[in-house]
Amino acid sequence: MVVDDHAIVRRGILAYVDTVADLQVVGEAADGQEALAELERRRTLEVPLPEVVLMDLQMPRLDGVEATAAITRDFPGVKVVVVTSFGEVERVHAALAAGAAGYVLKDADPDEVARAVRAAAAGEVHLDSAVARRLTRRMAGPPAGLGKLTAREREILTLVAQGNSNRDIARILVISERTARTHVSNVLTKLQLSSRTQAALLAIREGLIPPPG
Prior knowledge:
The structure is a single chain. The chain has 10 helices and 6 strands; from the N terminus they run βαβαβαβαβαβααααα. It is an alpha/beta fold. The protein has 2 domains: 137 residues, Response regulator (Rossmann fold, 3-Layer(aba) Sandwich), CATH 3.40.50.2300; 60 residues, Winged helix-like DNA-binding domain superfamily/Winged helix DNA-binding domain (Arc Repressor Mutant, subunit A), CATH 1.10.10. The protein has a 6-stranded parallel sheet with strand order 2-1-3-4-5-6, sandwiched between helices. The longest helix is centred in the last third of the chain and has 14 residues.
């Protein structure tokens, strides 16, 4: 689903998706309120929900941050990828706290948008490298408290930050997917994080992995 208050942007994404074999737009909305109404309509009619929502941040009525929070709360199976501009970087923090699964710049190459959608659908994290660098430079607050993590949990955090899904982590560490999911949940809880994307940014900030790009 594409959510943006500029019709020309939505038309552009629709035109691009038509050229990508494994992507399909199943809905669109001009703001967050309309997006939530469409998701609720689909659920009521038992129509499949979109796997990923591409979400603009600055919109009338219900903006992208509030809409992201509502979607992750009410439709937990739907992932949100924020589509942002450099001028909205401060809002990205709020969107990540609301549960966004990643973000891309509005002037990103179309192929990067496709990669972000695929990553979110697979339960992975996609960070635009330029925005990630600015966010990590601006991140404030006390140390992350990585000392709370066991050696295995630090390993899990690194793998999450590298964009691995629970299935990937299970394969790499030769553990069950359920165990991997439990480890990831424990890491997020110990570090008081609400999303894998926040975990990735924290790992960059703490030097566990280099910034993307």
